[in-house]
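Report of the visiting student (M.T.), summer placement. My assignment was to run the structure pipeline on a short list of targets and document each run. The first record concerns NADP oxidoreductase.
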Amino acid sequence: MTRLGIIGSGSIGAGLASLASAAGHDVRIANSRGPESLAGLVAELGPGVQAATVEEAAAFGDLTILAVPLSAYGSLPIQELSGRTVLSTGNYYPSRDGRIPELDSLDLTTAEYESTVLPGAVIVKAFNNIVAHHIPSLARPAEAQDRSGMAVFGDSTEAKQLVAQVIGDLGFDAVDCGPLAESWRTEPESGAYTLVYAADSEGFSSDYTADPGAPVPADRLRELVAASTRAKVAEREF
Ligand SMILES: NC(=O)c1ccc[n+]([C@@H]2O[C@H](COP(=O)([O-])OP(=O)(O)OC[C@H]3O[C@@H](n4cnc5c(N)ncnc54)[C@H](OP(=O)(O)O)[C@@H]3O)[C@@H](O)[C@H]2O)c1
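After the run finished, the structure tokens were exported:
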């Protein structure tokens, strides 16, 4: 059993908490409105998940998962996160997060930028290139033949190993895709963003939320990440 702190209880945070609970992990989950607001969610997710403050979730256990907008990273508790392995699911969306010059210029990847915002935290990037509803629909038990790969980027081998173990428990095969500097490969508008897991892989369905997703084996995911292209954020339309 791994002790997981999850900050963010929206689409991604709640989805990962649900899988973690099913895998028998001990989870503390937090949001911006406080533990009382999470009573309904934790009741739904079962006894393995308890509501916490952001500070409690940050300091809890072996791994902290961040599932909040990028604009919220600056308000997270730096002291509690320092020295910890932090699985970051965050993406940069200027329309939501405001313009960040280092990201618009491509000087940093989002994960590298997060490392500057949270000095001391050992950032590992994963689960940022899969839409929330594809996470439960593509999660499979370890013995399944149709498990999907999940790209993992990080600068610490030890931290990536811990994250890979948790990803495996949640139902995916972790694929080490290199350091944080390479994590642009799974950022929005890159070639290995969310569309790779879509059943309609040629383009978004008219109702993408109805797309059930399609398994992407680890070897195929590795190829897609290696072949990914990079788009300049400032040139994107949002
Ligand atoms: N949705 C997707 O399909 C998807 C896919 C891949 C990656 N991502 C990325 O994953 C991250 C989370 O996305 P999401 O879709 O799960 O977002 P979401 O549904 O909007 O949920 C965001 C969560 O973050 C919490 N939060 C916001 N500011 C906070 C703060 N300062 N301290 C603590 N908690 C805070 C919110 O708390 P309250 O509930 O109290 O407001 C909410 O629980 C984003 O960076 C997003 O770009 C999303």
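The first strand starts at residue 3 and ends at 7. Residues 7-13, 31-33, 54, 67-70, 72, 75, 89-91, 128, 131-132 surround NAP (CB under 6 Å). I thank the supervising group for their guidance throughout the placement.
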